[in-house]
Amino acid sequence: MANDKKLVEAITSMEEDFAQWYTDVVKKAELIDYSSIKGCMIIKPAGYAIWELIQSQLDAEFKKTGVENVYMPLFIPESLLNKEKELVEGFAPEAAWVTYGGSEKLQERLCVRPTSETLFSDFYSNSIQSYRDLPKVYNQWCSVVRWEKETRPFLRSREFLWQEGHTVHATAEEAEARTEQMLNVYADFCESVLAMPVIRGRKTEKEKFAGAEATYTIEALMHDGKALQSGTSHNFGDGFAKAYNIQFTDKDNTLKYAYQTSWGMTTRLIGAIIMVHGDDSGLVMPPKVAPTQIMIIPIQQKKEGVLEKAAELKDRLSNFRVKVDDTDKSPGWKFSEAEMRGIPFRIEIGPKDIEANKCVFVRRDTREKIEVSLDDVESKAAELLETIQADMLEKAKKHVAAHTYSAATYEEFKKTVEEKPGFIKAMWCGEQACEDKIKEDTGATSRCMPFAQEEITTTCVCCGKPAKKMVYWGRAY
Amino acid sequence: MANDKKLVEAITSMEEDFAQWYTDVVKKAELIDYSSIKGCMIIKPAGYAIWELIQSQLDAEFKKTGVENVYMPLFIPESLLNKEKELVEGFAPEAAWVTYGGSEKLQERLCVRPTSETLFSDFYSNSIQSYRDLPKVYNQWCSVVRWEKETRPFLRSREFLWQEGHTVHATAEEAEARTEQMLNVYADFCESVLAMPVIRGRKTEKEKFAGAEATYTIEALMHDGKALQSGTSHNFGDGFAKAYNIQFTDKDNTLKYAYQTSWGMTTRLIGAIIMVHGDDSGLVMPPKVAPTQIMIIPIQQKKEGVLEKAAELKDRLSNFRVKVDDTDKSPGWKFSEAEMRGIPFRIEIGPKDIEANKCVFVRRDTREKIEVSLDDVESKAAELLETIQADMLEKAKKHVAAHTYSAATYEEFKKTVEEKPGFIKAMWCGEQACEDKIKEDTGATSRCMPFAQEEITTTCVCCGKPAKKMVYWGRAY
After folding, report:
1. How far apart are CA A5 and CA A281, in angstroms?
2. How does DSSP classify residue B304?
3. What is the DSSP letter of A188?
4. B68 with A80: Cβ contact below 8 A
5. pLDDT of residue A2
């Protein structure tokens, strides 16, 4: 049946055009739709269900570290935004401004929040008096707006969903510890839940967040060899506290400025899942965030007993996120559809299987077919989901390892960027001039100064002066 | 210790000034704080945790009925909003308008969503072709903005959190069934989770939602005898489908307009919990939405073994949301604080209790003290939480019954509104003129035409013409 392949044929292959492949997957797997507002996306059920699974598992990790959730207003008065100079310079060019409430012009413009440091700082300024009020470890789940010119679903859009943590502490040490702690929560989450290895490190001065003393980042490598910044954690020192007057009386009875952090991850992670794990048949979902983990597909479903057996299997597997596809589409179509949606494995069951007291598990990631006795489906399903989760991480790790290069000389560096998409490890003198030159010459940017430093050479790959840091470089989304 | 009573003394009594009592509770129980944007509130951890418990339990009920979650953009282009006349007239006066993106003036103004019928309709118009695409039963959790002049925390604010369900169906019957189904989900949720009895009924033409064919509502009675509209469910018929061109090819191969519904509940429910259950010591939380269900308060905690025993109890009660207050505040202060926050019961345990192998459960709702053997704490705690949940509903039901009156004549009606705050059941001819007159004369509005109709008299309480419906009337928030 020619129709069976329709879903898959509609996808451009990765090799041919990776950007188009990405867009095709996003649309064909029904994750998003475009809206009538340019650059704003509609997140459809299949996409939002992934976000719900990310949110619930990440939120649980936050709460283990003492995070409490709150909700701050959507709007920031212009005067409040203007209090911190670097922040306003960073965000004003892409702010959306509310100027009218009903038919009345507002006395002061309101910015639709691009990020909420200002609101949290204002709140902390009013509500913190004593060391007894510290620390505050707050987070919110919300949407933010940045009026970007170029947009791509999940990766860069004018509105996106995220969480933003904002904490305030009595000491610089405590703020630094929280900044690093949350980066590690992010990295562990990406690896254990999204099956996505990341490089943990610090951003250079040039790449750090507006107003931050230090920005830490996790950087992931996509299938096409481009890097994706996947989560960041910022230490603000007492800079915002000085701009917003967040002072407290310490135990020694003196008035001190407080220390702050912020950290965020976004719906961009869904883009990362697609580009790390996907293939030419569509999505490949890690079991822990797969909205449907198992699809049962009855074969010759009109034959007596087949649909009943499929329903019985579903009941027995109800500890998992399981569905039966009992629509009147052909099995081939159903296989393609389950593959497009990245369902970790499907179970095929037909009259002959039932007669032989078995069914067939078909893995999405490897396409391996496994005959399973109907007596063992529960234990084998649990096992296979764990295996797939672990194997997907291993495969992604191997991809990162195979696409991470070292460059000792600038010639080598330029040749690698040009010919071998991936991460390049190379030494750096610490000067922004070299970062600028590298970007201009190659399009690669400094992704991070990894916590795990190595000494590739002793001199800067660009200028030849003594090196201070080993840096991961790469072209990025 | 004079200080022990500080929290409580700071609350105005309900009898003295109910509105001030409400504001005091909201602030002292640390549910919200005011922000620098007039009419927008900061929902603090204690308030947001209630919303999280409402959200997770309500969302689970939605999903049982086949609801899928999505996310629509925050903005509505003015031209899209203008397509449905009644809706635009209803919402334009309180719309917040974005006119600038960065430094560029937008070609078209964007409304910050006050509700998302327009966006869902536009989406459905583009994505529905055939009867096979129906029904769609979508919902989103988000914030909405309505530029209100008068605001009160949770009850009426310029931004609030809510869920909005938007469904589309092939037939009018199916849309009507979904509208009523969701109203019943809401009513059952209020009763079983929030311990809040509600009247289920239909709004009059005057009070229905802009653009709806029928609006159903649940109306709750607050402690002061005022009504609070607590959730609504709207049947739009095919009105929006005609305005937004949502057509599908039916099984008979003809093109038809689709039928739509929408339904919502908001953070206003937190206001309802406060005003239905609260007392002069603060909040009284129904166990199912209490962020902390049990507070363990050690007595003479410096004595050997007391804190250890408290920690041990906490571990044994870890199936519940339990905390130990081991701060250095006095027990009296801790009692007041646990009461202010509405924690369903506290456990007092001191050296003498430990010696006698017992502890004391103190109920928040009745203040009853119950001695419990340390051998039985798990089972007794589970039992008591269930008892409190059930008793709170019973108490609230009695309050509604005791404050629901019937009026046969207009004199009686006016006297009742004036002297006995509560619901008034009275007959109505169906004419808006009588609703208008009643409102002008008494301040009472029609709350709903209850599903459970009674015949109080045969004539309209206002004009004396033949009655068509029994209506619940009352002053309302």
Report:
1. 10
2. T
3. H
4. no
5. 41
**Per the structure, how many domains does chain A have?**
3
Query: Comparing C-alpha atoms, which of B208, B286, B287 is closest to residue B448?
Result: B208
| B130–A contact, CB cutoff 8 A | no
Residues of chain A neighbouring B80 (CB-CB closer than 8 A): 36
Flag whether A93 is in a domain: no
Alpha-carbon distances of A36 from A47, A139, B115, B238, rounded to whole Å: 19, 31, 16, 22
The pLDDT value recorded for residue A9 is 67
pLDDT at B2 over 50: no
Return the number of other C-beta atoms located less than 10 Å from residue A41's C-beta: 25
Q: Is residue B395 included in any domain, yes or no? A: no
Reported pTM: 0.96
Size of interface A-B (CB pairs under 8 A): 151
Query: Are residues A75 and B119, on separate chains, in Cβ contact within 8 Å?
Result: no
Q: Do B75 and A41 touch (CB under 8 A)?
A: no
Using CA atoms, how far residue A31 sits from A111, A437, B77, in Å, is: 29, 39, 23
Does A1 have pLDDT greater than 50? no
Q: Is B456 exposed, middle or buried (0-12, 13-18, 19+ CB in 10 A)?
A: middle
Q: How far is B69 from chain A (nearest CA, A)?
A: 6
In angstroms, what separates the C-alpha of A45 from chain B's closest C-alpha?
5
**Average pLDDT over all residues of chain A:** 96
Is there a contact between A69 and B52 if contact means CB atoms under 8 Å apart? yes
Cross-strand bridge partners of residue B138: B68, B166
Q: Does B263 touch chain A (CB under 8 A)?
A: no
Number of H helices, E strands in chain B: 15, 23
Contact status, residue A416 vs residue A465, Cβ threshold 8 Å: no
Task: Establish if B287 belongs to a structural domain.
Answer: no
Measured between beta carbons, the chain B residues lying within 8 angstroms of A99 are: 97-100
Q: Are residues A453 and A358 in the same domain?
A: no
Does residue A5 surpass a pLDDT of 70?
no
Among partner residues A43, A69, A109, which is closest to B71 by beta-carbon distance?
A43
User: Contact, A293 vs A343, CB < 8 A?
Assistant: yes
A89 — contact with chain B (CB < 8 Å)? no
- Residue B43: other Cβ atoms inside 10 A: 26
CB-based contact, A53 to chain B, within 8 Å: no
Model confidence pLDDT, tens digit, residues A54-73? 999 999 999 999 999 999 99
Q: What value does the CA radius of gyration of chain A take, rounded to a whole number of Å?
A: 25
Domain match, B381 and B424 both = no
The stretches of A168-295 forming alpha helices (DSSP H) are 172-192, 239-244, 268-277
**In this predicted structure, what is the pLDDT of residue A89?**
86
Residues A358, B357: Cα–Cα separation, whole Å: 57
User: Please, how many CA atoms are within 13 Å of residue A60, restricted to the half-sphere of its CB?
Assistant: 7
Within its chain, how far is the Cα of A20 from the centroid? 20
Q: Are A245 and A231 in contact (CB under 8 A)?
A: no
- In chain B, the residue whose alpha carbon lies closest to the alpha carbon of A74 is B159
The Cα-based distances of B169 to A6, B176, B261 in angstroms read: 27, 10, 9
CB count within 10 Å of CB B203 equals 21
Pairing of strands B423-428, B404-406: parallel
Give B237-270 pLDDT, tens digit per residue.
999 999 999 999 999 999 999 999 999 999 999 9
Q: Which domain holds residue A453?
A: 404-474
Question: Last residue of a domain, which of A329, A355, A386?
Answer: A386
Residues in chain B: 477
Return the CATH number at A420. Answer: 3.30.110.30
Q: B112 and A71: CB-CB below 8 Å?
A: no
Residue A158, C-beta contacts closer than 8 angstroms, at least 6 positions apart: A37, A38, A39, A40, A96, A145, A146, A147, A148, A151
Please give the structure tokens belonging to residue B231: 């959730």
Q: What percent of chain B has pLDDT over 90?
A: 93
Choose among A36, A99, A103: nearest Cβ to B80. Answer: A36
> Does residue A8 register a pLDDT over 90?
no
